[in-house]
Amino acid sequence: MGYLARWGVIRVSWLCPVFLLLGAVVLFFSLSVPVSLAASPLDSTAMSMTVDITSGLAFTGTQPLARLDSVELNLSLWPRTDWRQVVQLEGAQQPRDGTINYIYTKPPVRGIPLALHATVDTTGLYPAVRQGVPFPARFFPNDVAPLTLPTEGIDSDNPAVAAMARRITENATELYEALHLLGGWIEDHINYSLDTLTADATQLPSWVLEKRYGVCDELTVLFIAMARSLGIPARYVSGVAFTNYNDVNDWGMHAWAEVYYPGAGWIPYDVTYHELGYVDATHIALRKSERVNEPGVQANWLGYGVDGSLLPISVAVKELSSERGSRASIDASLSMLESKVGPGSYNLVQLQLRNPTDSYVPVFVQLAPTEGLAYESAREVPVYLRPGEHRTLYWVLRVDTTLQRGYRVTFPVQALVDGARYETSFVLEQGGGVLSRDDVRAYMVSSATHASTGFYCTPDQEFFYDDEDIALSCSSDTQVCLEQRCPAPADGGYHFTLPAHDAGYAPMHFTAGSSAVDLAVKVVASPSVSIEGLRAVSGGFGDAVNVTFSLMPSSAPQDARFTVSINGNDVHDGPVPGALEQTLSIPFTLLQEGENDVTVKTAWQDARGREYEDSESVIVTLGPYSWWERVKWWFMRMMGG
Length: 641
Fold this sequence. Notes:
Elements: E1 4-10, E2 44-60, E3 67-75, E4 85-90, E5 100-105, E6 112-123, H1 159-168, H2 175-189, E7 191-192, H3 205-211, E8 213-214, H4 216-229, E9 234-243, E10 250-261, E11 265-270, E12 275-276, E13 284-289, E14 297-304, E15 307-310, E16 314-324, E17 331-336, E18 340-341, E19 346-354, E20 361-367, E21 373-375, E22 380-385, E23 390-399, E24 408-417, E25 420-429, H5 437-450, E26 456-459, E27 464-465, E28 470-475, E29 480-482, E30 494-498, E31 504-512, E32 515-524, E33 528-537, E34 545-554, E35 558-566, E36 569-575, E37 581-586, E38 594-605, E39 611-622, H6 627-638
Parallel strand pairs: 7-8, 18-25, 27-32
Antiparallel strand pairs: 1-14, 2-6, 2-15, 2-16, 3-5, 3-14, 4-6, 9-10, 9-13, 10-11, 11-12, 17-19, 19-23, 20-22, 20-24, 21-23, 24-25, 26-28, 28-30, 29-31, 31-32, 33-34, 34-37, 35-36, 35-38, 38-39
């Protein structure tokens, strides 16, 4: 009677999660729009969890004299301690050669379970990368150099993969920048798709590049292959992470990458989660390897008359505690280009970031969606800041909302930066300024060039009216020109006066030697208070006359007031309340029989102290009265009725 030796292999199906942090915002036509950003485990900076991994071996088709002499289960997918996670294994044998071995001698012929319980403490803080490394990087330790070569499932030597990696990073000058460009390109050009989940193995990077879709392991292997093709050591991480994709809100098997960075060690990159240079605290690494499609459990047994199969691996995570806060000391401020705009206007969201630390800081920025606001670019942006760097991010938006007459709407704008929330807002109202796309883009160009040149040009005033000349001054050691205007220096600088410009942002292009500055000068429409919809409704004899009209202020008039007069006599005087419909009830006795001239007059100033006025009139005809009505009207007027 002979013995049969059998073995089995089980691989992991990666139900790769992705994540969404921001809740949608609904606009109701009221005075303000609410914003909500839901809290999530993904915001945690530290977590403590239990991890339970189960699998096993099931025996089928046994014969009457079947027996088992020995069974060995080898688990290679288990949490282990590294710089971002501390693991305490319970009830398991000591690992050997990267696996935990479960050995059974003469077990009964029935199912053999595999169970591992661990407590894992993780951090979601940014790894400390203080040293800038030039790109292309030339020198890596000998023990990581093999991870620059193609391996099973990672065809980094594929010509198309290598060519695309070179194209993406052709302008990069440092390693951190090159890796960020690779991750950003994959996020923008490779669609997360569940179509490959039924495949037996992860698709090759060359396949992913050609098809332009995949799940987390395929996005990851493409990133690794591109990095390796550029001579950068990279490895594959199998693990588990939290997801709220499609409202799942649970833990799932996941894959991401680690890249070797000289002076800092292995740095995680999760292109599926937009986490480039870090991973959040829900990520639990179970294995790190140079290749993909490795089995999670292997089994072999020695016996007679038995046949067995491995059970699927299951990983269950339970959160014990978590901490929330900022991952790094990032200074941020959120503002709008204009605090008040009119329907159909463009506007610009400005997020100023400053890294006061001595390390590179990767930041994932999200803007909350708001109904009625249409953004021209992605609201989710992964960026990084060099040590001490200042940077401003911009989002161009258009107010895509029809405003009901007499209403003003406050749009809140909210950003999530490094786990912290920042808010600003702007107002939509009739009479607000209307900016074009060119206006806001001119401002963006102006801000960018001022930050990168050695001379400065500024307008002499914060803004100019559209009926004023524009005055500007420049400071430079060399001659400054504005197009063909090259004035002689005076009063320590170069001064320019230009004719009036339409409301918006007037673009200016200055040059000084080989340097150039683009400046956007704010121009606003001259203030006004228009009187619209003036009408009067009279009833029968003795009834008051209702005069209705709307006052529509624009461009911030100063000290705006309005008066209502009847036949030259003022009956009301007060401040302009805003773009709302006004109704005044005029006593019957203030009106004459026949035609009455009802006039609404407005007066205001601009920021320079210049005075303006406007008026509108309507004729109200009463009568004819009978002789008795005339007597009654005269008596009521004498009595002040």
